[in-house]
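Troubleshooting entry. The earlier prediction with phosphoric acid mono(formamide)ester gave an output that would not parse, so I re-checked the input for stray whitespace and re-submitted. Clean input:
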Amino acid sequence: MSQLSVEHLLGIKYLTVEDINLIFDTADNFKKILARPIKRVPSLRDVTIANLFFEDSTRTRISFELAEKRLSADVVNFSASSSSVAKGETLIDTVNNILAMKVDMIVMRHPSPGAALFLSKHVNANIINGGDGTHEHPTQGLLDAYSIREELKKVEGKKVIIVGDIMHSRVALSNIFCLQKLGAEVMLCGPPTLMPKYIETLGVKVEFNLKKALAWCDVANILRIQLERQETKFFPSVREYMLFYGVNKPLLDSLDKKITIMHPGPINRGIEITSEVADSDQSIILRQVENGVAIRMAVLYLLAGKKGKV
Ligand code: CP
């Protein structure tokens, strides 16, 4: 198979296992290119990509921009706070105006779940979801699974825990879909107040005791507490959260095996993860960020290929 089954990357939910493996194989090739002194290839020359960020981002925004530039695409960046959206323009009008300037692909981060799907139904361009509210963050799910494959040689059969604020996390859902499609077992761990009701119907295990979850897993993907998405208090204090769900070195040292530590970023050091753990040799956090560029190059390249642009 050399083509994706989809025209947009809206969520991992819509990808087949073959799609995911094709993205990984393509990313392997781009990773080799990124290790060369000259990192730029002409694959997306004459393709124009707009990065629309309606929410803050460091990793995703820079990673997409670098991926686009490494592929020789023309890139325009759009930030909602300094655009005419602030004057009341609708999302569809904003995007259609950008597309009128001969833009081919849109990468969008938006605070509303479903925003990328909505856009894909109303405009004529490839849409890539860079995170839609609490719904999905597909390129993060892909780069996380790719990093596990790189570290542990395969994803199938591996036991992965996702720890923390599951309820407000788009990373959790994309990870669950991606890891399960690739044959991993997934367990969620966090305070009961931050665990969505009926989440077990997705085929995941739920464990509220962090030590038991850590003892079960090969990989722990630790999430940030998203205080900006919490209108009410879901736990009594940050200090109590740290005591029950913070991953620290004594906890890891008490296990009879060495597990892999991941975090999608941004990290709240000293809350969900201590600096000692984040910076330890068990952590692959910066490798996740590095792999993000190759994964995003692969996604952009394959979606452009679908449109006959490469
Ligand atoms: N992992 C992630 O989405 O980080 P940013 O919010 O910085 O893009």
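This one parsed fine. The two ends are 16 Å apart (CA to CA).
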